[in-house]
UniProtKB/TrEMBL annotation:
It is a multi-pass membrane protein. This is tRNA threonylcarbamoyladenosine dehydratase isoform X1. Its main location: mitochondrion. One of its GO terms (cellular component) is mitochondrial outer membrane. SUPFAM superfamilies: Activating enzymes of the ubiquitin-like proteins. The gene is LOC104607301. Catalyzes the ATP-dependent dehydration of threonylcarbamoyladenosine at position 37 (t(6)A37) to form cyclic t(6)A37 (ct(6)A37) in tRNAs that read codons beginning with adenine. One of its GO terms (biological process) is cyclic threonylcarbamoyladenosine biosynthetic process. Keywords: ATP-binding, Ligase, Membrane, Mitochondrion, Mitochondrion outer membrane, Nucleotide-binding, Transmembrane, Transmembrane helix. GO terms for molecular function: ATP binding; tRNA threonylcarbamoyladenosine dehydratase; ubiquitin-like modifier activating enzyme activity.
Length: 462
């Protein structure tokens, strides 16, 4: 009987709380409707200006004024973004809400990236794509329905976004990115540009333009023909492996623009599981795909796609961008293709070196699992003096043959927070110098190493 009474009390309390929340929300929405009627009038005026050629691509002066206000002061907005605010803190979330992000390419990857940027409270989005929603794209598009088939992807997103987070200023442009539209699309000092284009010529041109203009950009590589979500990574373009699109983009950027790296990309370390399907014309016979291109250079052959993979690509891109906008420090997992034997070799090399140099192995305080952490997480599989990812894939395997772990501070034990990865010659030179000499002669190197080792100390709770 007592238990039953407790249950009834809990149910009643829950119902009461739910009713209070509902009433509060209804009151807020009622006030919002009145405000929205005023805003809609401003939008109407702005749209008239735009249609008559006096507006600025959908960004009227009055609308800019509205978006310039602090979105988080709105009760509904702050409640909708409450989990983000709890995660980042109010000021960091305010940075997100004051940001302007450009997303170019609104297919399986770009639609999910844009959708989560919107849900994360980004205050201004420019969505660019020349293509339309097709029936076959519904397996991977973020918001499109059958009713949206045939309408431009950009307008489809804007329509759905207006019911998710209407406070966001969304400019949807049914437009192809190329040299003639570069200045228009990349103007307005965007805080981030997301490249979700699957055409090599356009992708290379966009990335080169962003580098030239000093804009932060994140590029998506091939998401089709893959199935393993655990292999998706963010790294420098130079480190993306097993991806034909990345390889072509790297080659073109270096050849045409002299750009060799410095661009973060989302890619899959998984080799493509299936190949491009042969193109068949209306008669069912295999034909030349280029004969059916609407725009020169754009593929018409079909890439088999498991819809969840491009969606995850887009979510990864949004997470990366939002944390960057918020100033939230995230250490992305490094691309290190080593196996257990490589770590065993480095561990054994450390033990032998300790015994040779100090006459004992009693000060070695790491096992193979610790070595994996030090080599992979702290030094990304390469010398602490080499910050550029020159060796990737099998090249990294070979580079292990000339690497070893040594103490940073020779007066302290060989622990997780006191080991650096160096080439043999670098290790000899390091052990011939004092830390004071390194600090005086190479202050930047000294600060970088001590910062990394401090992170190890914190993560291992030492």
């Amino acid at each position: 009987m007592v238990e039953r009474l407790k249950c009834l009390i809990l149910v009643g309390a829950g119902a009461l709380l739910g009713s209070v929340s509902t009433i509060s929300l209804l009151k807020l929405l009622s006030r919002r409707k009145r405000a929205n009627r005023c805003i809609s009038k401003v939008h109407d005026l702005t749209n008239k200006e735009c249609s008559s050629g006096t507006g600025r691509g959908g960004f009227g002066i009055a609308v800019d004024t509205i978006v310039g206000l602090d979105l988080l002061k709105d009760e509904i907005v702050s409640e909708q973004l409450t989990r983000n605010i709890q995660f980042f803190g109010l000021e960091s979330q305010r940075k997100v809400s004051e940001s302007f992000v450009v997303v170019i390419g609104l297919g399986g990857v770009g639609s999910h990236a844009a959708s989560m940027l919107l849900r994360s409270g980004v205050g201004r989005l420019l969505l660019v794509d020349f293509d339309q929603v097709s029936l076959s794209s519904l397996n991977r598009h973020a918001v499109a329905t059958r009713e949206d088939v045939g309408i431009p992807k950009a307008l489809c997103l804007k329509k759905h976004f207006s019911s998710i987070f209407p406070e966001c200023q969304v400019d949807a442009r049914v437009q192809l990115y190329d040299a003639s539209s570069e200045e228009e699309i990349l103007s307005g000092q965007p805080d981030f540009v997301l490249d979700c284009i699957d055409n090599i010529d356009t992708k290379v041109a966009l990335l080169a333009a962003c580098v030239r203009k000093g804009l932060k950009v994140l590029s998506a590589t091939g998401a089709g023909a893959r199935s393993d979500p655990t292999r998706i990574r963010i790294a420098d373009l130079r480190e993306s492996i097993n991806d034909p699109l990345s390889r072509s983009v790297r080659h073109r950027l270096k050849k045409d623009y002299g750009i060799e790296g410095g661009i973060p990309v989302v890619f899959s370390m998984e080799k493509p599981k299936v190949k491009l399907l042969p193109f068949k014309g209306p008669g069912g016979q295999e034909e030349n795909p280029s004969d059916y291109q609407i725009i020169p250079g754009f593929r018409v052959r079909i890439i088999p796609v498991l819809g969840s993979i491009p969606a995850i690509f887009g979510q990864v891109m949004a997470s990366y961008v939002v944390t960057q906008l918020a100033g939230f420090q995230v250490e992305t997992e490094p691309v290190v293709n080593l196996d257990t034997d490589h770590y065993r070799i480095l561990h054994q090399r450390l033990i032998e070196h300790e015994e040779l140099l100090y006459g004992t192995t009693m000060q070695v305080q790491v096992d193979i699992e610790d070595v994996m952490y030090v080599v992979k997480e702290l030094w990304h599989g390469r010398s602490a003096r080499d910050q550029s990812p020159k060796d990737v894939g099998r090249g990294m395997w070979r580079s292990v043959n000339e690497l070893m772990l040594v103490r940073w501070d020779q007066a302290k034990p060989a622990s997780v927070s006191n080991l650096i990865l160096l080439k043999f010659k670098e290790a000899d030179e390091h052990e011939s110098r004092t830390l004071d000499a390194i600090k005086e002669e190479e202050p930047e190197f000294f600060m970088r190493i001590t910062s990394v080792l401090k992170r190890a100390e914190i993560e291992y709770d030492l």
